[in-house]
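Following up on my earlier thread - several people asked me to post the actual chain instead of describing it. Fair enough. Here it is, all 374 residues.
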Amino acid sequence: MQPTSKLNVAVLMGGKTAEHEISLQTGVEIANALNKEHYRVFPLVITKQGHWIWPGQALTGAEERLSLPDVMHAAPPAPSATDAAPAGTPRRSALERLHPAPDRPVDVVFIAMHGPNGEDGTVQGLLELLDVPYTGSGVMASALAMDKPLAKLLFEQAGLRVPRGAVVDARRWREAPEACAAALVAAPGYPCLVKPTGQGSSVGASICRDAADLPHAMDLAFQFEPRVLVEEYLRGTELTCGVLEDPETREPVPLPVIEIVPKTTFFDYEAKYDPTITDEIVPARLPADVTARAQECARLAHVTLGCSAFSRTDMILQDGELYVMELNTIPGMTPNSLLPKAVRAAGMSFEALLDRLVQLAVNDHDLRHWQNGR
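Reply from S.P.:
Thanks for posting it. Predicted structure:
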């Protein structure tokens, strides 16, 4: 993509989420890798308290770098005169802080957020209301992908295989834990995987080997969500496959499949971001027909949820069958993240990937304007 003038791209990162720190790493990588010949890059941090902050100046030259401490220690601005005004005076909202200055409007928001409020359709809806182009999937696909039980239902209807499971809400668990535990013996049984319904990066997830492990696992998951998904624990080969849309045809094109070999019990939060305890093999050591099936599963999952631009689908291969575990609409972009590894294996640079995603964001925004007759 070679725009005639530089686009102002805000890289939105952080947020009120358990994945705040990982989001900052993703945001820093994106901000540094975006081509400064094409873009003025403005880091935009949402703190854990919900403050919107512009840490430092725009990155406009290839030699300019954003560091993790720059965004980790960004402080909210001092209260303005409006903020200190008498009761009843309207306060400046986060919406007014979306642009770094009145003469520097944001052309595209590159969403580098993970988990609730960033990957679940919330910030996408905000940007829709502001009529600002943004990267990745829209409101509906983002919300569906983050709600694991709903996504599983749609995957099943599309003909994809998913693990057996059940949803337990916090109130029912508090009122009748024995009855809930007894019901889980039949489906999905033990061992099982317990995880919140709307978190990413295996936050709050744990394996229950037997009924004695269940209370602790449920309590941990309920710290993050009022609903918990309990699934059968599949023993097999962990796989993931990214999808990247063609900017001209909008066809979702699967990337090389990655095989994940965690050296811990399972691919938990720590294993996802510590390269010393996980082997990630690309391309995966699979027969050609299994690779093709895995890529088709990722493509179909992307289409089923109505995703845009890119996604990454996690799967497990057990006894020759592929099970879809979940789909990520904003995969990580850290040096150890899976999607950048797959992109490199496909022969595309990280910079070219980011160019593609910005172009798709602009195209999607133009399409929405056309559909709305504006």
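The two ends are 24 Å apart (CA to CA). That should answer part of your original question.
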